[in-house]
Amino acid sequence: EEPGPFDLVRSQHAHGLTREDLALGLRAMASDGSEPTFSMGDDIPIPPLATSPRPVTAFLRQRFAQVTNPALDHLREGWVMSLRTLLGTRPPLLEEGPADPPLVELDTFLFEGSPTGERLDASWDPAEGPHGLETALRRLAEDASAAARAGGSTLVVSHAAVGPARAPVPGVLAVGAAHTALVERGLRPQVSIVAAVDDAFGSHDAACLLTCGADALHPRLALASVDVLAAEGRVPDAVAARARYRQAVERGVRRSMSRLGISVLDSYRGARAVDALGLAAEVVELCFPGVASELGGLGFRELAGQVLERWRAAFADGRPELANPGRVKFHLGGEYHATNPGVVRALHGTVDPGLTRLRSTAAGGGQRAAGTPEPRANGRAAVHLLQRAAAGPDPEAFARFVHLVEERPPTAPRDLLELAPADRPVTLDRVEGAEAILARFSTAAISLGAISPEAHEALAAGANRIGARSNSGEGGEDPARYGTETVSRIKQVASARFGVTPAYLMSADELQIKIAQGSKPGEGGQLPAAKVVDHIAALRHAQPGIELISPAPHHDIYSIEDLAQLVFDLRQVNPMADVSVKLVAEMGVGTVAAGVAKALADVVHVAGADGGTGASPLVSIKHAGLPWELGLAETRRRLVEEGLRERVRLRVDGGFRIGRDVVVAAMLGADEFSFGTAALLAEGCLMVRTCHLDTCPVGIATQRPELRARFAGTPEMVSAYLTLVAEDVRRILASLGLRSLEEAVGRTDLLRPAGATGLAVERLLEPDGAPAFAPSPPPRPRSRLGDRLAEEAAAALLRGDGLELSYGITNRDRAVGARLGGAVAAAVGDGPPPGRVRVRLTGDAGQSLGAFLVDGVELRLEGTANDGVGKGMAGGRIAIAPPRGAAPSAVLVGNAALYGATGGELFVAGGAGERFAVRNSGAVAVVEGVGANGCEYMTGGVVVVLGDVGPNLGAGMTGGVAYVLRADARLAPRTNRDLVEIVEPSGVDLHELLHLLRRHHRHTGSELAARLLAGWPRSARAFRRVAPRDAPARVYEMETSATSTGNRRAL
Predict the structure, then answer these.
(1) Fold observed for domain 5-91+100-314
(2) Residue of 199, 233, 589, 710 with fewest CB within 10 Å of its CB?
(3) Under CATH, which architecture does the 784-1050 domain have?
(4) Are strands 802-809 and 857-865 parallel, antiparallel or unpaired?
(5) How confident is the model at residue 612, as a pLDDT?
(6) 3-class SS at 78?
(7) Around 116, how many Cα atoms within 13 Å sit in the side-chain half-sphere?
(8) What are the phi and psi torsion angles at 155 (to 5°)?
């Protein structure tokens, strides 16, 4: 029986539903069929430090895959995922016996009807006091075991008894305790557990219940709440609203599974794929054994107190009102936010007092951003006047800002630590200068696209002027900035490879491989369609006005060995640049970091889960990953234990504001430090949190010209802020008796817990174990053949000569062509050089043949090639013909060919592996068969497939065109038709197709191409065109002709 209208509000209150949950969660899910997108990260206290009670699921942080196995894309690759659920007794696999009752098969874990089975009461009598919760859990565990022994097949954990006389047992604790007891007693296969609990509202709640043991879920109270929203007219149509809510929860659970690389619910169920943040050992041992809880935290008594507080308020006299704790958006009287308006005003006053006047102007502009014209007085001229009125950096104002941050309520683990002097204080003049400290600073990766060009350039120039570095983020960079003060010295290489060209790589001092980001680890980047304006689309080699979602993993990194290959590839292109790898904190990140060090990266970057973002799912912002303090401490210990600490520099980011943050991070092991949100605040960000809506009122997180005109930030503001932080670091070092920041690195003995904190922060300070051995770092490997090719061909290309070269090649020759591409790009950018070189190769090429190739270079291989052929190529040609005696249908190239290519040509007289042309955005290719996920995420270019295609062709394809031969009945079911359509080629299409067939035959001698040409135009009838359905055909006809013409001219 569903709760009535009056009981509904009391039940919502008793189970912890808030007005924010209702407005930003349930209402959005029931309206849109998905959970909301938000921006600017999570800046409230971690759950055990919260000022208002959090649900138990908030203490469970979702785990994610990084490097050691790939995450999945639950949107584009849903064909490999399943939420199928089986209920009933599962017989032993290896024992024969009488026929068991059949299992009930459900398409999904979530159902709306009331479940049947043996009910387990998830409530307790408040009269039992603080011990009542633990007693109720142990009783429930015994009841579950007794029901299983009695022959029950389905156990229903129920909140039905909760009311004025009984308080709820948090559903995830009840399910976890029952599941654990059944597993420990060997009874789990005999029963299924259905969670009919009233505290499951969003997908994170559902994911926690499932991974902690539930087989299925009946969210009774959430469904009743959706019904009331519909009855009140706040969402349309009750039946459709329930369906959309269900869809949103299922999508969210798929996301939770996919961030770990898990494709079927059976593998996620009971896996306890979470980290605990703030739960005591007694809770974990009873309900979630095996789950890491590094800091300990709240025990049953404290959790019981929170439950009773909500329950008493819910069932007190009078009608209860749902609370608005302000966990998402700041409001007075709500939860503390680290970037509250007072902090923002104080920082603005530090770098530019004029910004305090900008706030009132921009606040009004923010309301106008919905569409009304902007008064002329608030345009660019007024902004320039405001900039001239600025008085510059103010050390006294910065001191007030520091005091405000230092006196905040405990928010992060570092707030529970205090500094202990190493020696007597020293005078400030004996501490290293600010310039040495600034060399360790960088601005965090923020993409051009997420923020405006003006804001992006101000960050770069502000950092460069003081010897710090800026990070381009994953959106590419305008080549006009290369070699100027607005260049980003750290260039990011992310999973979508947006803007990654040879010239881009050569413009960097450091190349950062982004494995994950703090706001949504295990997911790809996201740029809303409104921000993909012409300029941004051109830099990303994408189509304007179409949302861009990056792949969840790098499709050339499924293991540590694959990561080592990409590190090698990038070093081949730019041997002068350092290579860093960005990870996100979770338990076990130290093991991954050790692998990164062994992959010969120079920098391990550990990001905290509170990182800012331009657009991320709110559930990911709030519930995935851990604070950087935990990840950094584990990484430091593991690297020391394995004798790897001296090989790499450790960098960290996540909520850095003041010098104390830097010094604590150094003592926990960091060498370098990145500032993201604070750097944006320094150039005028108001923390309006509308980055994902493209309505930023101060022109930072927007691409709209009328809003960009309001940008009042300057490089001087960024420089001033970072310099003031460096001086603050110097002040702290002097007070501790330290003469340099280097003296603080790894000095955990200079930190101690700040009194009785309730959390075991002393575990962060455990001394490092002695390394078992200290291996000497191996030399950086090089591609001998690649280096030889560059030495013999680069000068000729740049002089304008023609050159013919021939080499034998083996699978030990990796990334051949990359060093040549980098050398040419360093001289002429991504444009064609004056010369031409043709290279004939014979044998079996190693990985990344022709990676980052440039115009003017042709590689002709007789043989086979491993994975990554032509990855990142910007021009040139690769032609691969089978070795003599090979089978006609031989597969000649491996997986992920043309990954991230922006130009050039590839002709393969044979088949290719999986993910052919993944994220291709400009290359032209002809191949004679591809595996699964061909043309995935394509945004440009042309692919001709003269053979079979694997499943999921064209998933996420928003640009470019594919032509497929043998377009019989198998093509449609093997094509992901969410975005693309299959049509007959037009006359212009066939003209281009004929041209490409002739080139394919000429460059590879393909027998299949010869037969098709001999039968033309009859053979043309067997082709079909696969392209995005919303794009007019003429776009691709023009694009196809231009692309081919450009490559013919270059070669």
Answers:
(1) TIM Barrel (3.20.20)
(2) 233
(3) 3 Solenoid (2.160)
(4) unpaired
(5) 81
(6) helix
(7) 1
(8) -105, 130
